[in-house]
Amino acid sequence: MKKRFIVFIFFVISFSLAKSQKVNPSLLKDTWTANWITAPGAPAKTYGVYYFRKKIWLTEKPDSFIVHVSADNRYVLLINEKFVSLGPARNDLSHWNFETVDIAPYLINGNNIIAATVWNEGEYRPEAQISNRTGFLMQGNTKEEETINTNTSWKCYKNNAYTPLTGGIGYNTYYVSGPGEVVDMNKMPDGWMKNDFNDDAWPNAARVGWRGGTPKGAVDIADWMLVPSTLPPMELRVQRFAAVRKTEGITIPEGFPATQKSITIPANTKATFLLDQSFYTNAYPELDFSKGKDAGILLTYAEALFNEKPDGPGKTFKKGNRNEIEGKIISGRKDSIISNGKDNQYYSTLSWRTFRYVEIKVTTKDESLIINDIYSLFTGYPFQLNATFDAKDKILDKIFEVGWRTARSCAWETYMDCPYYEQLQYIGDTRIQALVSLYNSGDDRLVRNAITQMDHSRMAEGITLSRHPSFSPQQIPTFSLWYIGMVNDYWMYRGDAAFVKDKLQGTRDVLWFFNKYQNAEGSLRNVPYWIYTDWVEGKTGWPGGVGPIGKDGSSSLLDFQLLWALQVAAKLETELGLPAIANEYQKKALQLQQTIQRNYWSADKKLYADTKDKDRYSQHANTLAILTNTIKGTAATDLAKKLISDRSLAPASIYFKYYLHMALIKAGLGNDYLKWLDKWKENIEMGLTTWAEISEIDNARSDCHAWGSSPNIEFFRTVLGIDSDAPGFKKVKIEPHLGDLKNVNGIMPHPNGTISANYQFQNGKWNIELTLPEKNFGRFIWEGKTYPLKPGTNNFNL
After folding, report:
1. How many Å apart are CA 541 and CA 773, to the nearest integer?
2. Average pLDDT of the chain to the nearest whole number
3. Cα 468 to chain center, whole Å?
4. From the centroid of its chain, how far is CA 702?
5. Contacts 24+ apart (CB under 8 A), 546-553
6. What is the mean pLDDT of residues 748-753?
7. What is the pTM of this model?
8. Comparing C-alpha atoms, which of 75, 132, 144 is closest to residue 104?
């Protein structure tokens, strides 16, 4: 543990120093003097792990030494045996990230060794990992620092100890998060990163291409168009496993694995033990072991154990309570290590793994194997929880805790739908995740990164891709409509007119795409691609998440989503864009709203139907009717009550409940919000420590989808009532919906500081204290009456 803990300390120092430095402006417009390099003769696009070394001589330790680093697929950089940086943050070839690091703290007088591990997972790489070919790049910021530039003076080595462990995760499902590893420690070059290692036998590196590193816009053709990463380094933090839940063929010492204890597996033995982290995590497994010549160590990682293996026709994911292990089996991503018999061997995966449970299966040969220690190193986007919510209710506390863990588990160099199976940044997920980030942390860098990447993903037809980065393009046109909402969310909660205005052409292109499929009445017909709305399960299930489509290709679900996007886009154009475009959107929205009312409203049922046949109805269509003001006032309230009481409606999943709850609150039922959290309570009762992907928890494929973290928004926006009342959160609206709560308080981040709300019911009256940041004004709405709010503390006795 000590090795990696020291690594983490240096990592934090590296970040704080690097971010105070700026990239030399010439490196953002001119071709770099550094070359992309690879190992001579190495295949360009297939799996491989490579080591690079460079020795530089310094007559004195510099005060500053700034370098820019990138690779394809990934790199880890060490200087003088100390960990410095890893990356690059995922993006596409037209916006390939490089990291900027001031390496001066790691340099010494005399010889310095720069070492890098670079790996390309080739055809097995994660779906989210776009790639051109194997390569490594390092550029000094100025002439004085160019001695470190990558070129043919660097030494290199292909590490044949690594081969990909393919074949998926042991059952048939959509899994695209990369292969496992087979690592033969007998083939590992000992001490290659150490300063005294002799690399004379290593060949010199080979150049990739005919020009140096190329910043975006410098030339018309480039293998990678380089842009500076806008993200901080990912967090790395040591964590230990909580317990051993099962053993076979081995005795585990008391206290292991929560504390470091060695385990000896005798010669010619098969032993298995199951580790329980006790909560869901993304982490690098860290294994120290000795002896055991040619012993095999197999690690299997799982979110949960299965009652049956879901790999045959008709079989499903039956997981049961996630805390229970008896009678269950493990299946999942694997790594395999072969011991070389030496003391103090060390193994960690190149890429992090996702797990709650890890099974260790050891097979020894003629020598016993000693496991000196096993633990893990948590990784994720370095969000800090800067919000508190206290309702004196343990269940609500747990929902808040699980929601935050889920949001963190689905945030790395991009937002992710799920870290175990896909690691893909889908717009539908990301819109909710971004608001959780703003309400709970206040850090908007990953939000900006997501909006920018989605904008970059736009097709010639106008829509964004459904997910990006992704090397296989996928189109969900409805997600492009929610993207417009995501841009508006950023405008309302963070402002930055220049950033948002830059995205308006993209929102126009999205609506241009949909315009091609509107008939004379404005209704959509036969929209192509995957027109997903929600995972609806049960008797009213929607195959593939696609809602009912009428015989003529129309659907109220699609029309409503387009109407909502037109209304939001009209607002953005009014505030930031062109009045003529805003007027056009408003006209189109009004026409479409009238068409929806005419085509889909059932006077008998007092509901909006999914199709013109009026034979199928859903919470979704009627949710969107309220959110788009297609129905208002007491009629909207009556409709909202039917959304709760009418069990015949196709139900919203845990994802779409975000919009359902918004509609119910908008219609005046917000004081019941805390009564709508049964699905989240069921997740907790089933032993989940993150929110499952779908509502049928026992059958859930993914145990971690942050689109379920919407309570981490609504505890503040609905219960405490805190919301933006003007672009950039420049004005604050506070309209609480306390339900049965009598004592509740919370604090949330704001661009200018924090907002706090404290509600206490005492002696028949409410004592209310609301605190706004300096220079921020607002309004407080209580039982239909509005009170002004000034900066600082505002007290009410009502």
Report:
1. 47
2. 95
3. 11
4. 14
5. 547/610, 547/618, 547/620, 547/621, 547/650, 548/610, 548/611, 548/616, 548/618, 549/611, 550/611, 550/612, 550/613, 551/613, 552/525, 552/612, 553/524, 553/525, 553/526, 553/527
6. 98
7. 0.96
8. 144
